Amino acid sequence: MGIELGLTGTTRLTVAPEHTATAQGTGDVDVLSTSQLLQLMQQATIVALAGRLPAGMITAGLRVNLDHLHGTPVGSEVEATARITRIEGRRIIFDVEATSDGRLVGHGRVIRVQIDRDSFLDRIE
Questions:
Q1: Which residue has the higher pLDDT, 5 or 124?
Q2: Which terminus of the chain, N or C, has less C-beta within 10 A?
């Protein structure tokens, strides 16, 4: 069970007041914040990789490109999906999208890089 093209992960969130741009200080409208949308998409990448990394390896975010297309009000359910579209050495490239009630809320690309967990922790301490 390794990392393969086409692997997908999905996450869901019911938008609550704490997920809004108003609550997170990134706007003054009670809709899903862009930062929360990105978090949901990042979580979908982690779900796609669950149980697939070699022992001792983790991934870290390297690059994100995100278009947030529509506001999503409190009470709405948002579903994010991440699909591996390329693997370049240690880099894993995902296409991500989020929908709510059949409407595309956002889409983009997330690049994560495989790293040795212990080496990473040694470098940041």
A1: 5
A2: C
